[in-house]
Amino acid sequence: MIKAGIIVFPGSNCDRDAEFALNSCGFETEYIWHDYDNILKYDFIFIPGGFSYGDYLRAGALAKFSPVMKHVEKFAIEKKGLIMGVCNGFQILTETGMLPGALSKNTSLKFICKDVDVNVESFETPFTKYIEKKKLRLPIAHSEGNFKIEKKDIELIKDKVAFKYVENPNGSYEDIAGIFNKNLNILGMMPHPERNSVKTLGNGDGAYIFLSIRRYLEDAKNN
Amino acid sequence: MKSFKFEVLISLKKGILDPQGSATEKVLKRLNYPVNSVRFGKNIELTVNEETEEKALKIVNEIADKLLSNPVLEKYEIKLLSTEVLA
Amino acid sequence: MKSFKFEVLISLKKGILDPQGSATEKVLKRLNYPVNSVRFGKNIELTVNEETEEKALKIVNEIADKLLSNPVLEKYEIKLLSTEVLA
Amino acid sequence: MQKTINPEVLSTQLGLNSYEYKLIKERLGREPNELEVYLFSAQWSEHCGYKHSKTLIKTLPITIEDENAGYVKIDDTAIVFKVESHNHPSAVEPYQGAATGIGGIVRDVLAMGARPIALLDSLRFGPLTDPKSKHLFEGVVSGISGYGNSIGVPTVAGETSFDETYSTNPLINVMCVGTAKEDELTSSKSAQHNKLFAYVGSKTGRDGIHGASFASKELSGEDERSSVQVGDPFSEKNLIEATLEIAALQGVLACQDMGAAGFLSSSSEMADKGNLGCILNLENVPVREENMQPWEIMLSESQERMLFLIEPGWEAEVERIAKKYFLDFAIVGKTTYEKKMKLYMNEKELCNVPIKLLVNAPQLYVKSEVPGYFYVHRARKYPEITTNSRRILLDLLKHPNITNKKWVFEQYDYKVGTNTVITPGKADASVLWIKGNHKGIAVTIDGNGLYTFLDPYEGSRNIVYEAARNLIAVGAKPLGITDNMNFGNPENSTVRWQFEQSIKGIGSACRELETPVTGGNVSFYNESETEAIYPTPVIGMVGEVSDLKKTMTMDFKFPSDKVYLVGK
Ligand SMILES: Nc1ncnc2c1ncn2[C@@H]1O[C@H](COP(=O)(O)OP(=O)(O)O)[C@@H](O)[C@H]1O
């Protein structure tokens, strides 16, 4: 079985949702408390949404100092598997510098909770390889999802955009809803695939992403 | 006509809980920084076009009181940063 | 040992849109205030216990850089507000 | 040095009447000291003592008494739910008032050992054309959004309406729903003596002091600054997780949140419900500010605090969990066989009063009187409609009370927890999934101030029925209700009548529908500048969806479908 570790910070609140979605998509899961200070032995690391440390200061800013984050960085550098951060998880990944850019306040200055359509921008990645649809319907729920990037870093996201909003809800640069890192082993995104991973909760589109990840990891294991 | 640049500093009244400050302090202490009494405030810069400093200050006072601060929880302070004569 | 009280002022970099500032400016203009260039920043007060001002400042600089500000969006400024000798 | 104040003078200032003061003196056999006067005034305030309402509330078909919240069952899952008002705090500071309202009701459900899974909000303001009402409305919505979203409990349904009557006194009622296995529920009763009170949560500050008596006084428009409590959703989220972990420990006997009159009411009520007394050591209470007086520590309404009763020997385990979640921990007292409440500060005895006396506020009786308006309105004829109906329909659809409430609920995270199967806006009730099962919980909250004003009995009955209809419309069977009674000054004979009639109406509708009242809340002294607000009972109802595949939403499904009108 593909083994996923779900990192839980004080204030995370989509950890249990992630567990449910990953289990429904055939992953074995374990929670990893943010204090964990050891090598991460997993195939997949999931950083869930929520309000780590209350999102005080800035979303994701305080979480990056939790001991486990050093090991997440190592996991990425040593290419031990795939890493995915959703919503607050994405914010934490940009705060640590593992992904470029930053997520600032929505232009409406308000929290937005609704379902949006996103286009899959690249199918040539572990996270999207097996997605059988161009457009996915996914819930968003955030007040700081407005993706910004410095001019000098724009080069870094060239060909590394994972998803774009069909209708930009928050002012994000270039309608960006999610990006990959240079090595294509980290994905950060604002929409919540784990909230639409089974049909009871919507059309189930979120499952495509998790199933793609699982199949990719299984292929890698079998080779 | 002149343009006056002001800074309005807004801080929480004494005794009012500052959840942001205390969470930040807890993290800093865990990282072993010798840090105490972390308190968050807001800082707003704006310019006012008026004839005299007095008039401009009156306006900023009004804005700070009625719009920028929440008098139930916060207090404010105003500083003049610079003055420019408009053509 | 001394206790140094600092203020860290965090503001958005030039060129970064300040939605809060522009929303406030619009409201103020609608109310006919002669106000321009409203920008919001954060202001954080904290004390550091250290032997010398130099060491204390180094710590605050580190904290401001690594924790209090996000270099993609923000810049910061540090001011020493007061010093107290600890018993 | 502190000035000593004559206790009788102080008691008047704190809102006790002379009859109540005499009663205290008589039963103590001496003058109460200053601290004791503070304790009685808080515990005997309307907010804690229910002195104008207890006897009437007892006439409702209540299933569970003396606990933080009641519950109904779907199979072996207990659905714990309760509604609470934060009207007065929100009028002073809408953001924090609403935020702390959410915090309080979540802790009520949490204290039962249930995981909070949904929030509902019932909001009433003055017309939006009034900038003050607009400010309150926007502040309240962002407060609920800011706090509720952060703690990860979805706000799944609610109602929003506007009327002159609420211009200076908005109504902010919030309801929380939680679930637990029935045998995992925790009690708030302490059954044995010599057990320890463990304090877990944020530090105690001076916030909300007087809140309990403040909530029971008419808004005076004076400077109420000292009463404002600030919510810390990060600590609340930590408290949720910590409480659920602690409540599961074998050595934990009871739990109660520190709500109105904080430490005082939680400790005294826990002890009294178990027919015991208690000793508290105030020097151990974690405080946020220097030089806090004993009465301030006892009455503080600082948020995000919980009191547990634990078996000696379990301190370290509870402390470990508290620390894991960045929360303060302290042993602050114990239960005693002797039915007294005794307070100590550094071994000095500060207070020694019979606990039954303190906890059971004397009931007050006010004569009710049917107001003239009731007959006047009843005699009125339906007005003739002269304007064209198309115009009326369009005006109605535009009206803020009827128009789409997306602006409100899109600021709420209504999906976190991934249980929300029917989301707000899709139907008149929302439906939550009980995972591991094909069943669901349907929830709704309703009120109608105008109806209950015109006829408090029929109007209140109608609200219970409306709530039931909302549930039936999504395919659920109503199981139980919680009620929030928002009324004016209970010493007024018209208000008294409205209250009596309303309770009767709710009671009879509940008996007819066989939906028990599992708990509720009373908010008096809701007054506009000149008179009481419309009497506004608000009903929260939960129901069972036996098969999630068989729910129904209100959108038309296909172009050629027929539309039927059923009923009269
Ligand atoms: N304050 C609120 N919070 C959350 N949801 C709300 C709020 N106000 C209205 N809603 C949602 O909007 C929808 C329509 O509400 P409303 O127009 O009051 O319905 P009703 O037809 O029951 O009167 C419902 O799904 C309701 O739950």
TrEMBL record, chain A:
Named from the GO MF annotations, one term is:
phosphoribosylformylglycinamidine synthase activity
Per the record, the pathway is: Purine metabolism; IMP biosynthesis via de novo pathway; 5-amino-1-(5-phospho-D-ribosyl)imidazole from N(2)-formyl-N(1)-(5-phospho-D-ribosyl)glycinamide: step 1/2
> What keywords tag this UniProt record?
ATP-binding, Cytoplasm, Glutamine amidotransferase, Hydrolase, Ligase, Nucleotide-binding, Purine biosynthesis
| GO CC terms of this entry | cytoplasm
Query: Which reaction(s) are listed as its catalytic activity?
Result: N(2)-formyl-N(1)-(5-phospho-beta-D-ribosyl)glycinamide + L-glutamine + ATP + H2O = 2-formamido-N(1)-(5-O-phospho-beta-D-ribosyl)acetamidine + L-glutamate + ADP + phosphate + H(+); L-glutamine + H2O = L-glutamate + NH4(+)
**BP terms from Gene Ontology:** 'de novo' IMP biosynthetic process
Keyword Cytoplasm carried by entry: yes
Q: Which CDD domains match?
A: GATase1_FGAR_AT
Q: What is the stated purpose of this protein?
A: Part of the phosphoribosylformylglycinamidine synthase complex involved in the purines biosynthetic pathway. Catalyzes the ATP-dependent conversion of formylglycinamide ribonucleotide (FGAR) and glutamine to yield formylglycinamidine ribonucleotide (FGAM) and glutamate. The FGAM synthase complex is composed of three subunits. PurQ produces an ammonia molecule by converting glutamine to glutamate. PurL transfers the ammonia molecule to FGAR to form FGAM in an ATP-dependent manner.
Q: What is this protein called?
A: Phosphoribosylformylglycinamidine synthase subunit PurQ
This protein's species is Tepiditoga spiralis
UniProtKB/TrEMBL annotation, chains B, C:
Q: Alphabetically list the UniProt keywords.
A: ATP-binding, Cytoplasm, Ligase, Nucleotide-binding, Purine biosynthesis
Where is this chain's protein located in or outside the cell? Cytoplasm
Q: Does DNA repair count among this protein's keywords?
A: no
Task: Say where the protein is mainly found.
Answer: cytoplasm
Biological process according to GO: 'de novo' IMP biosynthetic process
Q: Which SUPFAM superfamilies match?
A: PurS-like (SSF82697)
Reaction(s) catalysed by this chain's protein: N(2)-formyl-N(1)-(5-phospho-beta-D-ribosyl)glycinamide + L-glutamine + ATP + H2O = 2-formamido-N(1)-(5-O-phospho-beta-D-ribosyl)acetamidine + L-glutamate + ADP + phosphate + H(+)
One term of GO molecular function = phosphoribosylformylglycinamidine synthase activity
What cellular component terms from Gene Ontology apply here?
cytoplasm
Which enzyme type, at the first EC level? ligase
State the oligomer form and interacting partners.
Part of the FGAM synthase complex composed of 1 PurL, 1 PurQ and 2 PurS subunits.
Function of the protein: Part of the phosphoribosylformylglycinamidine synthase complex involved in the purines biosynthetic pathway. Catalyzes the ATP-dependent conversion of formylglycinamide ribonucleotide (FGAR) and glutamine to yield formylglycinamidine ribonucleotide (FGAM) and glutamate. The FGAM synthase complex is composed of three subunits. PurQ produces an ammonia molecule by converting glutamine to glutamate. PurL transfers the ammonia molecule to FGAR to form FGAM in an ATP-dependent manner.
> NCBIfam families, from UniProt?
phosphoribosylformylglycinamidine synthase subunit PurS, PRK05974.1
Q: Sorted alphabetically, which HAMAP family does this protein's record hold? A: PurS (MF_01926)
- Family in the record: Belongs to the PurS family.
Q: What is this protein called?
A: Phosphoribosylformylglycinamidine synthase subunit PurS
Species name for this entry?
Tepiditoga spiralis
Q: What is the lineage of its organism?
A: Bacteria, Thermotogati, Thermotogota, Thermotogae, Petrotogales
Which gene produces this protein?
purS
